[in-house]
Design goal:
The complex is a heterodimer of chains A (267) and B (307). With 267 residues, chain A is of the alpha+beta class. Chain A has helices at 2-31, 67-71, 129-135, 156-169, 229-240, 242-266, and strands at 35-40, 44-47, 54-63, 75-82, 85-96, 99-112, 115-119, 146-147, 173-176, 180-182, 187-194, 201-211, 214-227. In chain A, helix 5 (229-240) crosses helix 6. Chain B is built from 10 helices and 5 strands, in the order ββαααααββαααααβ. Classes of the chains: A alpha+beta (267), B mainly alpha (307).
Chain lengths: 267, 307
């Protein structure tokens, strides 16, 4: 009797321990979420006098991935580079008395001046449009919120489309649906192109990880695009000492003109 | 070879800019005009933001005017009194012009107004020049009776009050049309239309100023008005790109020297006919751009760029 009671109490005491051990085991194998780390080839892009655009390489490592899902391509990575944000005004021309005149306009609030996107495959097949809109991933999903007087709401769509199309044809908005490649099972590499007219300022590199169409995690890094040397000196002078800068520009013109007439009179 | 323009914030091919500067310099040297009306549309055509193009263009005109003016001043073809009144009008005018420029830019109509002004002014001046020079050539060829300018001829300009004596020009003329002309040219300068090509014909045909003092005096006015406009543009719009301006002016002043040599081989009316054609061609080109359906009816302006 005593022995049975002991055994029973031992079983009662052990039961929760066994159960908790089971839970720990589960977490270790399946519940522990995937991780992602990213790094860029440089944290700073310098605009020099012969700047003609630049390439930025982004490396990334995935952790805690499910090897089976990885092997069948269920993990997708989207890497994007977002420029500094500014208000942008889109204007539309109409024919008035035979000539083309800007008649309507719409201003969008805080849109990135540049936007470059690379992904493992076309983002529309990575996840749902709802998810892309929520996170503002993709040229067609960047939030474009008009400010001020909107006028006819029906126009909003065409102004948004025009904005995206113009930014893309102008080279400031880019997409490369095969720009992210896995170099090993857990390492990926992405190349983003910065156009020659890339705006100055702090850009942000963002990387998103999706598993079977579901968002898992994201990481971001700043990238500074700065003018250097003489370009920076000139820009600073133009903005901080504008009158002195203007006087210097005129003086330079006077000297150039005077030198030319002097040199050529002799010859 | 590309060169980065710090104010326009884009890379351009330096040889294209040098070529533009040299070509415009050549023409301005040949015809004795500043070339602002040529350089601004060319720069805009090459994707330089219009705001930067007009401000930088006026800086470039300073250089080409100075290089042309020195020889004129040495020859004594400057009426300082006349030039000063033109200049006073010009400074008041360009101040107003800059203000108009800023307002129009804010409402998004600056490109249209600049184009319309160009089409109207270039069309008018070009046609008048061509008409006058072709008539002169026909008279010269046919040895017809030359239409001598009657010295005592009175037009409405002569009847205005506030008259003043201009010794150098041998004129007794009202201050009002002189100041008014300077003012009008001044208003246009911030729009990228260097005043020379309007100033010179207006001085000759409207004010009846002797040809020998016209060029020197108009250059005097243009140098100071474009210089002033450059400084004020730099101070208000931060839009003078000194790198772009310097490349343009170096190529421009060299081109101008060759232009002057070619110009000297041509007769006056031939030169005026060619200039008339050139002015008219630029006007027609801009008129076509206004009428023809644009490749894209939408355009974007970012607030951050060239604010």
């Amino acid at each position: 009797m005593i022995v049975r009671t002991l055994l029973l109490s031992a079983a009662l005491l052990l039961a929760p321990l066994v159960a908790s051990a089971q839970v720990m085991l589960d977490q270790a194998t399946a519940v522990l979420p995937e991780t992602m780390e990213i790094g860029t080839s440089t944290g700073e892009i310098a605009i020099t006098s012969d700047f003609a655009g630049a390439d930025l390489t982004i490396f990334g490592a995935l952790g805690n991935t499910d090897q089976l899902l990885l092997a069948i391509g269920q993990y997708d990575v989207v890497v994007l580079l977002e420029g500094p944000r500014e208000n942008a005004t889109v204007r539309k021309k109409e024919r008035v008395f035979g000539i083309w005149v800007n008649t309507q306009s719409m201003t969008f609030e805080h849109v990135p001046e540049a936007y470059s996107l690379s992904s493992t495959r076309a983002i529309d097949s990575v996840t749902t449009p709802l998810e892309l809109n929520d996170r503002g991933i993709g040229l067609d999903h960047i939030p474009l919120n008009p400010i001020g007087f909107i006028g006819d709401v029906a126009n909003m769509r065409e102004f948004r489309d025009a904005f995206r199309r113009l930014q893309e044809t102008g080279g400031l908005y880019e997409r490369d649906p095969s720009g992210v490649r896995f170099v090993s099972s857990s390492l990926f590499k992405a190349t983003l192109r910065l156009p020659a007219n890339v705006p100055n300022g702090v850009h942000t590199v963002r990387a998103y990880l999706f598993k079977s169409g579901k968002f898992v995690t994201e990481k971001s890094l700043p990238l500074r695009v700065i003018k250097t040397g003489i370009e920076q000196t000139i820009t600073d002078a133009a903005h901080e000492q504008p009158i002195a800068y203007g006087c210097f520009a005129v003086l330079l013109a006077v000297l150039t003109g005077w030198t030319a007439s002097f040199v050529f009179r002799k010859s | 070879m590309s060169i980065y323009l710090p104010i326009a914030e884009l890379s351009v091919n330096i040889f294209v800019i040098l070529g533009m500067g040299a070509a415009v310099g050549f023409l301005s040297g040949m015809f004795g005009v500043g070339g602002g009306f040529l350089i601004t549309p060319l720069l805009i055509f090459y994707n330089i933001p219009p705001v930067v193009a007009v401000a930088t263009g006026s800086n470039q005109v300073v250089a080409s005017s100075v290089s042309g003016a020195i020889s004129h001043f040495k020859r004594g073809s400057l009426d300082l009194k006349l030039g000063s009144i033109l200049l006073a009008g010009g400074l008041v005018g360009s101040t107003l012009g800059l203000w108009v420029f800023v307002v129009l830019r804010r409402v998004g109509q600056i490109d249209l107004i600049i184009s319309l002004l160009y089409v109207f002014l270039l069309g008018t001046v070009g046609t008048l020049m061509l008409w006058e020079s072709v008539n002169a050539m026909r008279r010269a060829a046919g040895k017809g009776k030359p239409l001598a300018r009657k010295p005592g001829h009175h037009n409405w300009v002569q009847r205005l009050p506030l008259k003043m004596r201009f010794k150098k020009s041998k004129l007794y003329l009202s201050v009002i049309p002189v100041f008014g002309l300077g003012f009008f040219v001044g208003v246009l300068t911030p729009m990228g239309i260097g005043g020379g090509f309007i100033l010179v014909p207006a001085m000759i045909y409207l004010l009846r100023i002797p040809t020998n003092v016209v060029v020197g005096t108009s250059l005097f006015q243009v140098i100071f008005v474009t210089g002033y406009t450059t400084i004020v543009q730099a101070a208000t719009n931060y839009s003078v790109d000194i790198v772009l301006a310097f490349v343009l002016m170096v190529a421009g002043v060299i081109g101008a020297q060759y232009g002057v040599r070619v110009g000297q081989r041509l007769r006056g009316e031939q030169l005026r006919a060619l200039l008339g054609l050139l002015v008219l061609a630029v006007g027609v080109r801009l008129a076509i751009a206004l009428i023809v359906t644009p490749t894209d009816i939408y355009s974007i302006v970012m607030e951050g760029i060239n604010k």
